[in-house]
Amino acid sequence: MSQTQKLTISAMVTALCVLCLAGSALLPRVSLSLAALAGLFPAVAVLACGYAWAAGASAAAAILALLVLPEKTAGVWFVCFFGHYPIWKAWIEGLQEKTKKPVLGWCWKLAGFALCMALLYLLFRALFLSAIPYDFSQSAWGPAVLIAALLAAFVVYDHAFSVIIAWFRSRILPKLH
What we know:
There is one protein chain. This protein has helices spanning 3-26, 31-38, 41-49, 51-68, 73-82, 85-99, 102-127, 134-138, 141-171, 173-176. The chain is mainly alpha-helical. The protein has one domain (3-176). Helix 1 runs antiparallel to helix 2 and helix 2 crosses helix 5 (73-82).
């Protein structure tokens, strides 16, 4: 694939990500879902163009989302997790195939997700401490239940993401080359 084709695909991925994230201005209640949907597009860049082009497209979409869009919630989710997840997911799964150790790959994925969510929580707590209910922040069970629910949602999201990537590889990617 030529550099021009890679640039074109990366630019289209960036535009589609920003378009999905812009939908949160119209539908603010589904901003997390729109960020998750926007997170699918960098996977296209990983498969078609490689890690560097995907990272560039994801970074450009994140910057544009935070600078241009009026509703920043989906953009923050994209920056904190969904924008870079397809890149490190592909890298970890590549290591899984080489080492033949899927448990190690899942440990890396879960650790990366936990780190992203912890950083997001710390950012949220630092900026909006008064918005966190006192009972939740003082309870030992509140954060534990939230973490368990987030990890379960992540496992479901990762599996669905893998199914979509497999479909893309078999149906669409051969037509791009």
